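Much of what follows relies on a compact textual record of a protein's fold. Here is one such record, which you should read through line by line:
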Amino acid sequence: MPDTHGGSADAGTATGDIPRPDTSRPVAAPSEGGSLSAEARADERRFQLYTVAVLTFGLVVAGAVSAWLPFQGSVHLWWIGPLLALAFLGAEQLGVNVDVRSGISWTISFTEIPLVIGLLVAPFEVVLAAHVVAGVTTLLARRVTGRVLYNAGAFLLEVTSAFAVAGLVKQALGSVEDMPWLAALAGTLTAPLASTLLAMAAVRVLRRRMRVGTVVRLAGRILVVGFVNASVGLTGYLVISKTPEAWPIVLAVSLGLAALYWAYSDLLREQRDMEALTDVSLMVARSGQQAAARPAGKAGDVDVDVDIDVDEWTTIAERIRDQLAAARVVLRLRLDPEQPMRTVVVGDDLAAGYDTELDADDPLLRLPGAHVRHLRVTEANPQIRAALLRRGASEALVVPLRSANQLLGIVEAYDRLSRWRGFGKYDVQLLGTMASHLATALDNRRLLATLRHDAYHDPLTGLLNRPGFRQVAAEPLREHANSVVLRVDLDVFSTVSDALGYTWADRMLMAAGKRMRDTLGAGVPLARLEGASFAVLLADCDAERAQEIAQRLREQLSAPYPVDRLTVEANSVVGYVLTTAEENAERVDVDSLLQRADMAVRATRGGEEIKSYVPSMGQIFLRRFQMVTQFRQAIEEGQVTVHYQPKVTLPDKQVLGVEALVRWQHPEFGRVNPDEFVPAVEAAGLVGVLTSFVLDAALDRVRRWLDDGLRISVAVNLSVRNLADAEFPARVAEALERFGVPGELLTLELTESDVMQDPERALPILRELSDLGIELAVDDFGTGYSSLAYLRQLPVDQVKIDKSFVFGMGTDLGDLAVVRSIVELGHSLGLTVVAEGVEEDLARDQLEAMGCDVAQGYLISRPLSEDRLEAWLQARTARSLDPASEPVLTLLT
């Protein structure tokens, strides 16, 4: 007859037919003398009363049926009782376990076959004794001792109900001699139904629920299998009784039916095992996807999200428990090697006081390999026996979850919920395969979590990166009416990188990140954006507190950094932007806030290291953005022009050349200062376009002067980006050839800082330009950090004294001394010395007295457009008429 158990409809356990109480509080096994929880004790008392009621009712009903159907056997048939007992034992041993859906495990035990034959050939008392003896003996042999009395009462009621129904049918049919086959069939089908009703009543006693649909399907399966088994037994008996020599056919049919049952059970078991493997893998995968879909964090830094969600893993453990029909499943998981193992328990609770933490000395958890260990109290050594008893268990399956020799966790299953058997080879295989799938799924989840962590974190400092900050900051900005985004820039990073190398600069960045984290605390989102720039989100913060925190950050970051045996002095600037409730409610754009904070950082100058964003800053940057995007069009439309400022020799006042200076007359902004648009154009990578435009205009002007018989040179300013372009000398040569201008009439000016920024890289470019015959000049000399050694190596022809020194010569003896030194230095190196910013006669006279070669400034002329330059040349200069030399222009006094 079928034995049903498992899931929410357990009707059999490792200690009997009835499921143990399933609570979430620690419960000690009674055999260990531990104390049960209050709920568990109440369940145990109810079940004890139910056991007494079943056993008492079974004895009373058995006595009534025995009186109704008195013993009519013969002492010469004494062998029938033992033979039936052996038949019942054999039927139980040959039982087939079929695992079906919804956590229901269904055991086909074939006990209907000896029962139907017993109804036909033996008295009630003999069949009752044989069945009870066989059942109790099987339980004791398999050491299932916890529910023997209940099962004995169930055995009594099974046989008693079978004979009672058979007797009623027999009377209804009017047969008084032998029991007809119909009565035997009806009685046989009654026995498993009675057993199932007792189990369902036990479920109610233990306050466990079972759906009506499940009960109906279960009863239907029981009747079908019972009918088939009873029909085989009844048919075999009738055939053999009429034709004794037909017993081989009956045996063959019985063996075929058993084989069919086993094949069907294997098919269903494989199907359900595959479903269980798929379910467990999908549960872990969904758990990882849900973790990945969660926000990176509400505050602070985002760690690798491999933490154990108890609810999710409890569901997975319950699925494993249902599949194995185990009384208890324990999952021990450690996805992060730096964290302790987390333990999830489903089913029967662990013994009170039992430590769920991983114990290296626990004999059950010594798992050198990756195989399933099947441990039993009766077969184990004393240490394993003691470990099982501490857990209140008699049997266990234990398997590690490993990936690349790393222990990710352990799965433990205890005590199969079955009346007749414990864990078998199929359970061992299933758990091993499931552990392999689970370990792979866990490893994949850990890998995805690591990838997600790396995607949102800076690998150097461990802080958030820009995408991580964007994700973390979005929710707090929506939730809080007033928040602040700070941007902090260290201004010595590039210097340290150049002087000491990137290794030391990286160490300084890590130290800076740690100082900021210590200052802000663990709950404040902090990110390294790029280079030496950091971002901070202060949720629910006002301007006063933002200013205070910015000041504290500056103080911490400005403290000296010990780098190896050196101490690096540092400075930092902070820009911040305040948000409003209206902005947060409308649309939270973290990138826009970072951009505004960056504008505030750029606005810090003149000793003001902390700056709050104001809308006018946005207008400035918007204006620069518009200029950069409109620059090409401005050149094509003639908005950008070239002006020229004359240079004259001292003391003979001959016009030696002009300097080409770019000007932009914007239709919206008016005249734009070159100091504003040139750096923006240069930063946008358009300096090549600008240089080519000025160079072409200047060479065209020189060509026209040559056509007029004048040799006037032109000077064009270069950018440091031109010196990084290996193709630049070739483009200059092409322009000279295109306009037919000799190289000596072109002067290229570079600032002292640009030349010295990377002299090793600039030197080959400058030499190529010098080989073209081009004059090279160092502009703004005296304001940078020139190295005389490099200055001697560079193919420089001119040095231009910065106008700031020329302006101060008349009032500052220091400036006068600097100018005199530059003139003497230039001459000692064989260079032409040009003075910029000559605006007074006194300055001109002083320069002339020092021996300065060339003067340029407002005293001579302002920068002029091409038309005005021609008018100036006609009005202020005189052309020499000496036929023995080339015509020159001399400035009129």
Q: What stands out?
A: The two ends are 131 Å apart (CA to CA). The chain has a mean pLDDT of 77. Residues 40-242 form a domain with the Arp2/3 complex 21 kDa subunit ARPC3 fold (CATH 1.10.1760.20). Residues 247-293 form the longest helix (47 residues).
